[in-house]
Automatic annotation (TrEMBL), chain A:
Keywords: Cytoplasm, Flavoprotein, FMN, NAD, Oxidoreductase, Pyrimidine biosynthesis
Coiled-coil region list: none
Record's keyword annotation contains Hydrolase: no
GO biological process: 'de novo' pyrimidine nucleobase biosynthetic process; 'de novo' UMP biosynthetic process
Main localization, broad class: cytoplasm
Protein name per the record: Dihydroorotate dehydrogenase
GO molecular function term, any single one: dihydroorotate dehydrogenase (NAD+) activity
Pathway assignment: Pyrimidine metabolism; UMP biosynthesis via de novo pathway; orotate from (S)-dihydroorotate (NAD(+) route): step 1/1
TrEMBL record, chain B:
One GO MF term attached to the UniProt entry: 2 iron, 2 sulfur cluster binding
Required cofactor names: [2Fe-2S] cluster; FAD
Lineage: Bacteria, Bacillati, Bacillota, Bacilli, Bacillales
UniProt-annotated binding residues for [2Fe-2S] cluster: C221, C226, C229, C245
Record note on cofactor: Binds 1 [2Fe-2S] cluster per subunit. Binds 1 FAD per subunit.
Subunit-structure text: Heterotetramer of 2 PyrK and 2 PyrD type B subunits.
Species: Sporosarcina pasteurii (Bacillus pasteurii)
Stated name of the protein: Dihydroorotate dehydrogenase B (NAD(+)), electron transfer subunit
HAMAP family: DHODB_Fe_S_bind (MF_01211)
Pathway: Pyrimidine metabolism; UMP biosynthesis via de novo pathway; orotate from (S)-dihydroorotate (NAD(+) route): step 1/1
Domain (FAD-binding FR-type) ranges: 1-102
Length: 304, 258
């Protein structure tokens, strides 16, 4: 028996570990370092309709136990991803989750329609929560009605299940979660980065050219756990959890909070082999906890 | 191939004010292709200082599997690195990036190596390799002040060396360009690493020459996956970005918009 297997809408995962969108490019760099077939899935970098150049630099800054980024969704655009990135990934036995972004509904719909036809794309992740693009993006993720409508519009054209990625930069994340569920989301991924900033000690000016950036890394883990704990108890769709996962224990924590699988983001920068390392370490963790299969841990923080 | 390795600290010493020279040993050394490549160092075992620090490779000894890095203890991360002692281990990812193309200068030709401050280190290995193949190297090295000058003797042993300091405490007073103005332009290639304003001045002064410049940008992954370290190219009217970590850090003069 595979003790780590997870079944989610559209996804038969060998294990619950996948690199998070934006932290793994389109796989080519890490694919030179290890066999990507080891992974549960890969969430590729956000794809927009047209190529995007992103924000000016500096785009990253370190913060205590975390980092800020304002990449601004730089990517080669839908055609570039369809022609150059997805076919390359076909050599690996791993499902791809395509992260879809846009500035208006029509963009999302067009990208979703096309990218969901790629043979290795098994699910979409709607990025309605990127804090680093000025137009659109953020309002999709903060207004429940708009989030619901966008989800429904994308669901109507997608050939594969649709997961919606929630922003933590809202007053009540539960409200948005329920809205995307009403819109037909097959699953929820959370959390995206938290808005933050860092100042240069000498000049007092922001280090990130965009002034603010998205905070990720271990510093955000408590926020992510709290939000997943809250949301997983009120929705009927599965959650892929993320935010500061660095090791196997963090994975256990996210599952306990209510996630069914997890994504690892910033940790890839700290240790490029972090995903295969976690996968290798999980069985021993299960032994320690006395569980046979990893799914037994899901939601144990609130289960009686 | 890029390797992640726990490298052994062979030595660590302060060679100028807050400037440290560290020798590291490991298998990774065999993978190095060219001078000007860099390594990505994890400065803390804990997660407090999360991101790795990019540092250039200053000298390579493939026979003893050893590299030398030279860095300025400036912020929290490099200060913590400066506390490591002989016998400690350091988590290193590398070799990263594309270095200086030594094949671009032929034996018998002259190359100008122009460095500024903490951009000087990669020029040392470059000079060793160029000199070994019969290129005459002229070094023009700029620093803030006498107390942060390093490797003067090492560079002198390889060829003509001009030291410049902003405050004139040693060598010529001024910038590298102050020395360059009085030097002949009878050389084949120039190679440069240092702060951007310096790279810009050098590139403008030698606009008709073949040159290679090494750039810096804040990095996330160091391997080309995160798009943090991009810089604008001059290539197209609408800005086009390339990555310093995996497309660079060394680019032919004229490629990057500075
Ligand atoms: C390709 C490359 C080669 C380099 N080679 C050398 C070298 O040989 N010797 C040397 O002393 N320095 C070198 N640097 C600069 C060096 O990486 C920074 O000075 C160092 O990362 C600062 O870290 P810190 O912990 O002292 O500063 P902190 O302020 O504590 O660092 C905080 C964050 O900012 C980043 N950061 C700060 N300054 C820079 C910078 N100038 N470039 C990139 N990231 C920065 C750090 O990496 C870290 O993520 C190089 C940079 C690059 C990009
Ligand atoms: C450099 C960087 C780029 C990112 N780009 C994207 C992106 O393109 N699309 C997206 O949905 N999330 C993006 N994210 C957010 C991550 O996928 C993840 O939600 C977040 O970083 C929290 O996880 P972590 O703490 O493990 O990194 C990015 C994060 C980082 C650090
Ligand atoms: S640092 Fe990640 S792409 Fe260069």
């Amino acid at each position: 028996m595979n003790r780590l297997s997870v079944e989610l809408p559209g996804l038969q995962l060998k294990n619950p570990i996948m690199p998070a969108s934006g932290c793994f490019g389109f796989g080519q760099e890490y694919g030179k370092m290890y066999d990507l077939s080891l992974l549960g899935a890969i969430m590729i970098k956000a794809t927009t309709l047209e190529p995007r150049l992103g924000n000016p630099t500096p785009r990253v800054a370190e913060t205590p136990s975390g980092m800020l980024n304002a990449i601004g969704l730089q990517n080669p655009g839908l055609t570039g991803v369809m022609e150059n990135e997805l076919p390359w990934l076909e050599q690996f036995d791993v499902p791809i989750i395509a992260n879809v972004a846009g500035t208006e509904t029509a963009d999302y719909v067009e990208v979703a329609k096309v990218i969901s036809t790629a043979p290795n794309v098994h699910a979409l992740e709607l990025n309605i929560s990127c804090p680093n693009v000025k137009e659109g993006g953020i309002t999709f993720g903060t207004d429940p009605l708009i989030a619901e409508e966008l989800t429904a519009a994308v669901k109507a054209v997608s050939k594969v299940p649709v997961y919606v990625k929630l922003s933590p930069n809202v007053t009540d994340v539960k409200e948005i979660a329920l809205a995307v569920e009403r819109g037909g989301a097959d699953g929820i991924t959370m959390i995206n980065t938290l808005l933050g900033m860092r100042l240069d000690e000498k000049t007092g000016k922001p280090i990130i050219a965009n002034v603010t950036g998205g905070l990720s890394g271990p510093a955000v883990k408590p926020v992510a756990l709290k939000m997943i704990y809250e949301v997983s108890q009120i929705v009927n769709v599965p959650i892929i959890g993320m935010g500061g996962i660095m090791n196997a224990q963090d994975v256990i924590d996210f599952l306990s909070a209510g996630a069914s699988a997890v994504a690892v983001g910033t940790a890839n920068f700290v240790n490029p082999f972090v995903c295969p390392t976690i996968i290798e370490e999980l069985p021993a963790k299960l032994d320690e906890l006395g569980v046979e299969h990893i799914s037994e841990l899901v939601g144990r923080s609130y289960r009686s | 191939m890029i390797i992640q390795e726990s490298m052994l600290v062979q030595s660590q010493r302060e060679i100028a004010h807050n400037i440290f020279e560290m020798k590291l040993q490991g298998k990774l050394v065999q993978e190095i292709q060219a001078p000007g490549q860099f390594i990505h160092i994890r400065v803390s075992e804990a997660f407090d200082m999360l991101l790795r620090r990019p540092i250039s490779i200053a000298s390579i000894d493939q026979e003893s599997d050893e590299i030398t890095i030279i860095y300025r203890a400036e912020g929290d991360g490099t200060r913590s690195l400066s506390k490591r002692n002989e016998g400690d281990r350091v988590d290193v990812l590398g070799p990263l990036g594309n270095g200086f193309p030594i094949a671009e200068t032929k034996a018998g030709e002259v190359a100008y190596l122009i460095g500024g401050g903490i951009g000087v280190p990669p020029l040392y290995e470059l000079s060793k390799q160029l000199t070994a193949k019969g290129v005459t190297c002229v070094h023009i090295l700029g620093f803030q002040s006498e107390n942060v000058v390093f490797y003067e003797e090492e560079f002198k042993a390889l060829g003509e060396t001009y030291i410049v300091t902003v405050d004139g405490t040693i060598g010529t007073e001024g910038f590298v360009t102050t020395v360059m103005e009085n030097l002949s332009e009878q050389f084949a290639t120039y190679y440069s690493c240092g702060p951007q304003p310096m790279l810009k001045a050098v590139q403008e002064m030698y606009a008709n020459k073949k040159g290679y410049l090494s750039f810096e940008e804040r990095m996330g992954c160091g391997v080309g996956a995160c798009f943090a370290c991009v810089c604008k190219t001059t290539e197209r009217a609408e800005a086009n970005y390339i990555k310093v970590c995996s497309d660079g850090p060394v680019f032919p003069a004229g490629v990057i918009a500075i």
